[in-house]
Amino acid sequence: MAAATAATLALTALAALAGTAAPAAASGPPPTPAPPAALAAVPAATAASAPGGRAAPAAPASPTLPRPTGPYATGRDTLFLTDHARPDPWVPAAGPRQLLVSLHYPARPGSGGDPVPYMTTEEARLMLAQRGLEDVVPADVLGATRAHARNAARPAPGRFPLVLLSPGFGTPRATLTGLAEELASRGYVVATADHPYESTGTELPDGRVLTCAACDRVAAQPDDAARREVLASVATGRAADFSFLLDRLTGPHPAWRHARRIDPHRVGMAGHSIGGNAAASTMAADRRVDAGVNMDGTFFAPMPAEGLDGRPFLMLGTDPGHGPGAGDTSWDDGWDRLNGWKRWLTVRDSGHFTFTDTPEIGEQLGIEDPDPEATLSAARSTTITRSYVTAFFDRSLRGRPARLLNGPTPANPEVLFQNP
């Protein structure tokens, strides 16, 4: 099965990931309809498709991510790590499990080289092909999306909390770049991982390109229950990935040259879609993670019955899809099991990919979100995601007041506080 087709089928199988599932029957969780794919867009009309056979327009300019708002400049390094204790769960013949990790960090102003690339051209090509956009957006245009972190910049002095980020299923780590840069600009070290064989394409430093074998596995399952079981293993497998990553960042022989800038006693994790499920699974498996955020992800791997040992957790999702009593009952169950400080926020007019870079990139490329409920502007999507996630980590890892999390505010009328 071609990688793009398998990824499409796998994404179609992810019911509640989009937060648009039908109401649950009394017998259990609903089947999951297709979520809107990131950038799986309705392209704006082009000259090539207009009557009269006019010439196709020039290729669009590469998008630019919104500038981070914090006081720090940002740097970025990349790590390629091998866990010799575990075979790859999707392709055991490939050998040990490997991770490709972007590290964003507070940097000294004016240091470092050029801004780093958003993703490689091949990663962009595979992502566009999976979304059916290969003839709409050139791969080099998407790959050259302009971010703001500078390569190999000198780190700012001091020690900083660490935030781990995990992307959605079938989605590259690049889609969380804007959030990573924002957190780094506000004084966090941020480690965003690509989980091999769980994305449309991951290009390794040696030139190998790994496509989505996990998508093949999901697509091959005979029914929804079997698909959910595989997706649960994605979340728990990522928990093992992040425990290994923590060892390599905070252990006695760290893999990162600036590891001394990390405060190992202040660690949080956030994820989008299944990455949000992975945040809870990582907290359940590894006591070193002090706080977590799930951005619109179904808990395929359930929240532990005993909760998370009183550690704080934020659930940030679409409205109404991830509201109380909506189609994704895993959020109701997870909420009841959380036994520490917690918030359940939903965002009006949002879509599954509101919490990623997709709205900003799609808007600049003239690509409309196919989800009719996702009418929130790119600017508001970015502001809400950055503001609430940062406020949560400021409160949980730094002990700072976070009035934004106390209740509704006139400045953010789209954000609803749920208290079932």
From TrEMBL:
GO molecular function terms noted in the UniProt entry: 1-alkyl-2-acetylglycerophosphocholine esterase activity
GO biological process, one term: lipid catabolic process
Residue ranges, compositional bias (Low complexity): 50-62
SUPFAM superfamilies recorded: alpha/beta-Hydrolases
Signal peptide boundaries: 1-26
InterPro entries according to UniProt: AB_hydrolase_fold (IPR029058)
Record key words, sorted: Hydrolase, Lipid degradation, Lipid metabolism, Signal
Cross-referenced Pfam families: PAF-AH_p_II (PF03403)
Keyword Lipid metabolism part of the UniProt annotation: yes
Protein name according to UniProt: Lipase
Highest taxon in the source lineage: Bacteria
Region spans: Disordered: 50-77
